[in-house]
Amino acid sequence: MKAITTAALASFALGIYAAEIPKAPVPPSPYLPIMYKYADAMVERGRDTKGLFYSALDRATMAPLTNLPPAPSGVREEHRVGRYDFALVGSNPFHDENLLRLLYTLSELSGKPKYRDAADAELRGVQYDSRYLPDRPWVLLDRGFHVAPDVSRRRAEPRIDDFMLSFARDGGFRIREWAAVYARTNNEDFLDALDRFAGELVARRDPATGMIRTLTPEISHPLALSGLSLAIDCDAASRLVPDPTATRLRSLADEQDRMFCALPHDLKGRGGFITGDAEATGANRNTTLWTPRAGRYRVGHTTAQVAMMCVSRYENTGNIAYRDLIHAAADAYLKSMPAPDDDVWPMTFGHAISLQVAAWRSTAQQKYLDRARELADFAMKHFFDQGPLPRASLKSTHYESITGADTLALGFVELHLHILGITAVRYPPNTIDR
Q: What is the DSSP letter of 337?
């Protein structure tokens, strides 16, 4: 018998001759390659000479449109880029915020600076062009200071006007902007304006409901949703400013949380959130799963869209009332799919996917992750059916950013990272559409 060497014995002791432990299979994820193709198409073919992304494109040629295609259901003509009677050509960077966040994420994942550079180029345009003032929660303000610091300091004015007092939601956007400017500059004027404006909002609370009664009825954003949006921005702003302003902002956010969570949301029955009160809106409007009802001035909200606002509040506060609403909303989408006649936006699928992932994170129930994949597979098949650009809606053939293709893209990235168990890469939360 051949002698066993000392080295062989040592190797055996170290387990080298033991059977190799099989590696756990990595579940396939087809979603990230699609996102790279989408991003590459926008960076290489979807920008004008100033570096701004076109808001609408021909999906076959990946070039600006030469006509005015019918608007997706729920999109008002006055909200689209370009002229009503000419080709749909132009840029609106405020429909691109999630696209920029996607590009920053892909740059981190791939190590390729071209995605970051393209996002920075548009962000400079936003900062330098006075037309592009915040009309939504612009969470890239900090990056704006990085790429255009002088302009970022000049563009914000610590001035309270009637418009801010007319819509609590829009007032929240300004609160967040002022807090970001103060955090960067330590300019006390912004802190003083923040404190005075928060006091104005507190004084306008309804003692019975906690809803903020603004100067103008919330015809574009029902009161309950305005309050929920305001809570998100007050909470974010409170983390950037010192006391006592921070405490006042947190208190305002807490009251809006209590108000919203106390409403009789019928997610198990009707699958919708209560978005307003009878006195302010004429009825307790409920959200719908796939095609939101059109309001007087804008399209309404889907259940998944509002649920993602709840995700933002739950992940920032740990309030279990929001966790329960998230689970109930996710359950409403477990068996539901759009009807054949529904003209659904990619944004809605993005929210629905991220909602299922959020429910899976807090429950570890596989049904939610499985459902997220089912929704993503449907969206991949029906929106990305021709080339790298997604269609504007299930009934549209062109690309148009107003319907939230970038929100769907973030949903894909989030799902991809969860499927592969990747935790080292931060992904942008899909919670800003409000």
A: -
CATH number of the domain bearing residue 404: 1.50.10
- Cα separation, 399 vs 390, in Å, equals 6
| Secondary structure letter of residue 384 according to DSSP | S
What pTM was estimated for this model as a whole? Answer: 0.88
Count of domains for the chain: 1
| 253 C-beta neighbours (distance < 10 Å), count | 25
Q: Are 152 and 127 in contact (CB under 8 A)?
A: yes
Please say whether the beta carbons of 405 and 364 come within 8 A.
no
* pLDDT tens sequence across 265-308: 989 888 899 876 544 333 456 788 998 765 554 567 899 999 99
Q: Is residue 366 part of a domain?
A: yes
The answer to whether the beta carbons of residues 85 and 12 sit under 8 Å apart is no
Distances (CA, A) of 78 to 83, 129, 330: 9, 20, 33
Q: Per-residue pLDDT for 73 more than 80?
A: yes
DSSP symbol at 243 = T
Q: Distance between CA atoms of 202 and 223, rounded to whole angstroms?
A: 15
Q: What six digits make up the tokens of 218?
A: 């919330």
